[in-house]
């Protein structure tokens, strides 16, 4: 079975930085696109970063653009999210995902990690 395990979350002061990691197993890692999402109670998951299978093409959500970097190491089956200049509104559970697109560029297959908490407060 496919398993994605996030780590690196925790508590940080406003303006601080955190680095998240997501290790995948049971999947041909370099065949999949990767993304990071975040979720707060009562709200839909928000995509904040995504990258193609080789880690070259990248896109970011407007809420975090300029403050985060997504990357991947296909040799280690790991996707990373570097976040900086963190704000209280960044507080959320952060999830990684591996996915592939269908012929109309819809998500045709997707797997999720269990999430890791980031709390930004003074």
Please provide a written account of the structure.
The chain has 122 residues and is mainly beta. It is built from no helices and 11 strands. Strand 9 and strand 10 form a beta hairpin. The protein starts with a strand and ends with a strand. The model has no long low-confidence stretch (mean pLDDT 97).
Q: What about the largest sheet? A: 7 strands, mixed
Number of helices: 0
- Ends distance: 40 Å
Low-confidence stretches: none
Show the helix and strand layout:
Elements lengths: L2 E5 L2 E3 L5 E8 L7 E7 L6 E6 L6 E3 L7 E6 L4 E6 L8 E10 L5 E6 L3 E5 L2
Parallel strand pairs: 2-11
Antiparallel strand pairs: 1-3, 3-8, 4-5, 4-9, 5-6, 7-8, 9-10, 9-11
Properties at a glance:
single chain; 122 residues; mainly beta; seven-stranded mixed β-sheet; four-stranded antiparallel β-sheet; 11 strands; 0% helix; 53% strand; globular
Summarize the structure.
This protein is mainly beta. The chain has no helices and eleven strands. The protein starts with a strand and ends with a strand.
């Amino acid at each position: 079975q496919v398993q994605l395990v996030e780590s690196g979350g925790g508590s940080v002061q406003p303006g601080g930085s955190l680095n998240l990691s997501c290790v995948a197993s049971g999947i041909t890692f370099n065949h999949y696109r990767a993304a990071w999402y975040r979720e707060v109670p009562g709200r839909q998951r928000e995509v904040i970063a995504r990258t193609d299978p080789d880690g070259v093409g990248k896109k970011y959500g407007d809420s975090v653009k300029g403050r985060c970097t997504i990357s991947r190491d296909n040799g280690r089956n790991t996707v990373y999210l570097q976040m900086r200049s963190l704000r209280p509104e960044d507080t959320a559970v952060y999830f990684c995902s591996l996915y592939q697109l269908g012929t109309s560029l819809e998500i045709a297959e997707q797997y999720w990690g269990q999430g890791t908490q980031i709390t930004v407060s003074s």
